[in-house]
Specification:
Elements lengths: L13 E4 L9 H28 L6 H18 L2 H10 L3 E3 H34 L4 H4 L2 H28 L7 E2 L6 H5 L7 H33 L5 H34 L5 H25 L2 H12 L14 E6 L3 E6 L2
Parallel strand pairs: 1-3
Antiparallel strand pairs: 1-2, 4-5
Length: 342
Amino acid sequence: MSDSNTTDFTNPSTFILQGIPGLEAAHIWISIPFCTMYIIAILGNLTILSIVKTEPSLHVPMYYFLCMLAVTDLVLSTSILPKTLSIFWFNSREIDFIACLIQMYFLYCFLVMESGFFVAMALDRYVAICHPLRHSTILTNPVVANIGLAVVLRGGIIILPSFLLASQWPYCRTNIIPHTHCEHMAVMKLVCADIHIASYYGLFVLFFVTGADVFFIAVSYIQILRAIFSLPTKDARLKTLGTCGSHLCAILAFYMPALFSFLTYRFGHNVPLHFHVIIGNVYLLVPPMMNPIIYGVRTKQIRDRLLRLITHKGTPFFSWSSGSQTKFHADLGGDLVLGPLP
């Protein structure tokens, strides 16, 4: 380790993850909320997947997208937390060079996927609320599968150039990464070459790819709000507005911390390093923890199914009014979806 900070340092076989610089003495205490958020994320998302799998009435597009989001959250949180906790608990700081690059690839690949699934879920809600009679014909199972595949391929392809560049550049400054995981810009600062192309490409992904996702989500919600205010009753408008508010909170919980972390890392030169690292972990842990709560607990069908598993009481999932052929039912915490009579 005596040569780790010399200028003639050659490409390392391993990197050293420093953890949270300046707060090493508090690692054990910091690990408590991190571990708690991780456990909630794992249990919550596994519960969503289990309930949707075992309940045939939930085998519809909205819940398929919810499962895709849950899998993404599981991979996203698991890609960083086990190693982070090993640093906090066992002082296990070494990470293989290839393992570091793979962690970085999976991390940003699944961040782009999560953004894509938010777009897919916004599309589902737009069709369900604005075109309810055509929902089942537009979002068929093959269409949902193709949307999911497109989101996965987009994430993998968009992040691939950054991964290839990172694997080819020379690292000769140090092998110490002042972070709990292989964060892209923290790794790039170890490169002894011109990294402007990587910086520009990162900005492209942020402002054009993620920006396009935010634009499509915003357009969907504008159309949804127009449909909401055309509903005949005040109760229906308030209920659906409340649902849109919860969904928007989930979206903001994903995009805002990520944007803040990305921009402060590039332009916030006076921000303390430990603050960068903490924010860099929070924006990767909070959405996987919150999504099962917002999209699961607030979903009547999943909530009823969970209560049935806990209490062993048969609670009906749907209540249909007699004498009508179709009925709007509250879904995903109150979204309006056209459901046919069984």
